[in-house]
Amino acid sequence: MGHTVAVAGASGYAGGELLRLLAAHPDLELVVASASSNAGQPIISVHPHLAQLAGRVFAPTEVRSLGEADVVFLALPHGQSAELATQLPDTAVVIDIGADFRLTDPMAWERFYGGSHAGSWTYGLPELPGARELIKASKRIANPGCYVTTATLALAPLFANDLAEPDVVVVAASGTTGAGRAAKPHLMASEIMGSMSAYKVGGLHQHTPEIEQNLSAVSGQAVTVSFTPLLAPMPRGILATCVVRPKPGVDATAVRSAFEDAYANEPFVFLLPEASWPQTAATLGSNSTHVQVAFDEHAHQIVVVAALDNLTKGAAGQALQNANIVLGLDETAGLPIAGVAP
Question: Do residues 199 and 247 share a domain?
Answer without folding.
Answer: yes
